[in-house]
From TrEMBL:
The keyword Signal applies. The keyword Signal applies. It comes from the Eukaryota. This is Phosphoglycerate mutase.
Length: 359
């Protein structure tokens, strides 16, 4: 167990006191907050992003001529205006990337064989999934999101994101590009996303979780900005151990603390991953809600700065067992995580795999 204290310094006239940001999800506005909504079958495009049809105490007298999203924007404006100075509200639109070649490969080989062998390779004879690109299906999913945003802007006058943040992995860089291209966005809030190192997927030994270098990302997405200090090469992926859930949640909280302390806009877009959005939802106290590839979830967040020190207990990263040759079975659980290698090859748990990439 490692204990990470994550203090923020609040300066005052006399002394510096430590404080931290406490997050919660404001429920009652979105179907996704409701326990009875099934994430597996939920379609954000069939439900106005999940915004529940209702009237609000803040509805103005001309409410009948306003859309649900316009009236919800008034709710948020009211919350923001009424909030004490240590509280802020933000609406996060979190989008999962469309299907990538690694997703296709996991379906093709089955999850156990994928986890214990294929995921550690850069690809097979016909597909590459190291920092995977989108499949045609994934591109189509991102275009569905694009078309849906356009319809929300035109029909609902939805507030569009004021700032865009994107994971450094190719599938997200690409999804964001397709999702927000060609939209009638406000000229002062254009789609110029910031690449955030910590918005990446859960860092496993899989090559799909290893990012490309900054030079390459810039060459592919020249209009994107990088957050200050974004390293040229991937400093986090090891290929030997995998980030634990608690370590990932500590990382997600660091990411949120950074964004909530530096960005005072209300509507934000995150383009990220299923595992990472799951972790952010845990930090936000949102119910579990697994996104399908290409899906988007809005979350109304209350962030409150409170005095004291927040301590997050994190488990050290651990190696995952794997085979050095294709596995013989596809059991999903059991010893070594269901990784059953041929007789000649016991599961490897600690040594660097022979196909690991140089640093
Ligand atoms: C939703 O489910 C969680 C966990 O099962 C439970 O703690 C919570 O009270 C439920 N919320 C509602 C509104 O039913
Ligand atoms: C959600 O829907 C899926 C697919 O129809 C189904 O298999 C699953 O049991 C449902 N989950 C719940 C909690 O109802
Ligand atoms: C709200 O009502 C409209 C039609 O008035 C419908 O199209 C939409 O799906 C409803 N949204 C939800 C979340 O039920
Ligand atoms: C927020 O809305 C409530 C009604 O729900 C109202 O009493 C209050 O004055 C509003 N606050 C602001 C700052 O508009
Ligand atoms: C390689 O993996 C992809 C899925 O990513 C699959 O569609 C393809 O058939 C595989 N190629 C071979 C030669 O097995
Ligand atoms: C998306 O990428 C294409 C190809 O690089 C580029 O021409 C276009 O400007 C990008 N769109 C956005 C919104 O970044
Ligand atoms: C950056 O990545 C690209 C694409 O993978 C590669 O061709 C290039 O050599 C890398 N640059 C450096 C400095 O490693």
């Amino acid at each position: 167990m490692v204990c990470l204290a994550t203090p923020l310094l609040l300066s005052s006239a006399f002394t510096a006191v430590s404080a931290y940001i406490q997050y919660s999800t404001v429920t009652g506005y979105f179907l996704q907050d409701d326990n009875s909504t099934n994430a597996t079958t939920f379609d954000y495009t069939a439900t106005n992003f999940g915004l529940i049809n209702q009237s609000y105490p803040t509805d103005p007298s001309n409410a009948a001529s306003l859309t649900q999203w316009q009236r919800f924007a008034l709710v948020i404006a009211n919350l923001t205006k009424s909030a004490p100075s240590n509280v802020q509200f933000k609406l996060l639109f979190m989008g999962r990337h469309g299907e990538g070649w690694h997703n296709a490969a996991e379906s093709y080989y089955g999850t156990p064989a994928w986890n214990c062998y294929w995921s550690l390779l850069d690809g097979n004879a016909t597909a590459t999934w190291s920092d995977a690109h989108l499949t045609n299906n994934g591109i189509a999913q991102a275009l569905v999101a694009n078309k849906f945003w356009l319809s929300r802007i035109q029909e609902q006058k939805i507030p569009t994101p004021q700032k865009y943040y994107v994971s450094p992995l190719y599938r997200c860089l690409s999804t964001a590009n397709l999702t927000f291209s060609g939209l009638p966005l406000p000229p002062n809030e254009p789609f110029i996303p910031t690449v955030k190192a910590l918005l990446r997927e859960s860092i496993s030994e899989h090559t799909c979780d290893r990012r490309s270098n900054k030079t390459y990302i810039h060459s592919q997405f020249p209009t994107y900005k990088f957050e200050p200090g974004f390293p040229e090469t991937d400093q986090l992926w090891t290929g030997v151990t995998a980030e634990t859930n608690s370590a990932q949640d500590a990382r997600s909280k660091t990411l949120l603390d950074n964004i909530f302390s530096t960005d005072d806009s209300t509507y934000l877009s995150f383009t990220s991953h299923s595992g990472e959005i799951g972790s952010i939802l845990r930090v936000l106290g949102h119910r579990t809600f697994s996104l399908n590839t290409g899906a988007v979830i809005p979350v109304l967040v209350k962030a409150q700065k409170v005095a004291g020190l927040s301590t997050i207990s994190t488990q050290a990263w651990t190696p995952s067992p794997h085979c050095t040759v294709p596995p013989v079975t596809s059991v999903s659980t059991g010893t070594n995580g269901g990784c059953v290698c041929p007789n000649s090859a016991a599961p490897v748990t600690t040594t660097l795999p022979p196909f690991a990439v140089s640093t």
